[in-house]
């Protein structure tokens, strides 16, 4: 968990501005929310965030228990410790929410994301893009005479680093799935 520092005098109006004036540290948290798989649940969860001015950095959702009709929503958000606690408490009060886990504080976890990156280029730029893709273990999933589409799975920071290196080589489009995360070790 790496703290981020807020600029003084920010004119941004959101729930983050409710922070303790003595504390300027924002924390990134990954939340796993187990919900009933029924219409409108995702909208209610997202509505909680938007209605209170909380930001969602990443959001993934899929049914994980077909027989029990449950889905797992993985949310990455940033806030002060007080804001994170408010988010968890408010999520827990939504009726179709069964469990809320803060993977950031509950112990070690694994986070991965899938990204597709389209890089257009010719000559040396193509050669360099392929060389960097090999270093980052990105797979070529489509190729034309003018472009490549790379597939990469890894921590969000690894995908960010790869994208930063591809920009000067012709990165023209990127699609990311958002973070999928699980706690390490045995079942809770």
UniProtKB/TrEMBL annotation:
| InterPro entries, per database record | Acetalactate_synth_ssu, Acetolactate_synth/TF_NikR_C, Acetolactate_synth_ssu_C, ACT-like_dom_sf, ACT_dom, AHAS_ACT, AHAS_small-like_ACT
Q: Name one GO molecular function term.
A: acetolactate synthase regulator activity
Gene3D superfamilies assigned? 3.30.70.260, ACT-like. Chain A, domain 2
**Domain ACT: start-end pairs:** 30-105
Recorded superkingdom = Bacteria
Please tell me whether the keyword Phosphoprotein is annotated for this protein. no
Its UniProt entry gives the catalysed reaction(s) as: 2 pyruvate + H(+) = (2S)-2-acetolactate + CO2
Q: Which SUPFAM superfamilies match?
A: ACT-like
Q: What is its EC number?
A: 2.2.1.6
Pathway annotation: Amino-acid biosynthesis; L-valine biosynthesis; L-valine from pyruvate: step 1/4; Amino-acid biosynthesis; L-isoleucine biosynthesis; L-isoleucine from 2-oxobutanoate: step 1/4
Q: Which GO terms describe its cellular component?
A: cytosol
Q: Name one GO biological process term.
A: isoleucine biosynthetic process
Family per record? Belongs to the acetolactate synthase small subunit family.
Function noted in UniProt: Catalyzes the conversion of 2 pyruvate molecules into acetolactate in the first common step of the biosynthetic pathway of the branched-amino acids such as leucine, isoleucine, and valine.
- This one is known as Acetolactate synthase small subunit
**UniProt source species:** Pararhodobacter marinus
């Amino acid at each position: 968990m790496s703290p981020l520092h807020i600029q003084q005098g920010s004119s941004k109006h959101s729930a983050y501005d409710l922070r303790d004036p003595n504390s300027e540290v924002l924390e990134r948290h990954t939340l796993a929310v187990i919900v009933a798989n029924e219409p409108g649940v995702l909208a209610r969860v997202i509505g909680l965030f938007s209605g209170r001015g909380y930001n969602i950095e990443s959001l993934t959702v899929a049914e994980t228990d077909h027989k029990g009709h449950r889905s797992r929503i993985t949310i990455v958000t940033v806030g002060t410790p007080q804001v994170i606690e408010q988010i968890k408490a408010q999520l827990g009060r939504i009726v179709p929410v069964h469990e809320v886990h803060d993977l950031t504080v509950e112990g070690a976890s694994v986070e991965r994301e899938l990204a597709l990156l389209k890089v257009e280029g010719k000559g040396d730029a193509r050669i360099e893009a392929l060389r960097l893709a090999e270093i980052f273990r990105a797979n070529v999933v489509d190729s034309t005479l003018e472009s490549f589409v790379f597939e990469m799975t890894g921590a969000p920071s690894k995908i960010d680093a790869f994208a930063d290196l591809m920009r000067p080589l012709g990165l023209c489009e990127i699609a990311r799935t958002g973070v999928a995360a699980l706690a390490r070790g045995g079942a809770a």
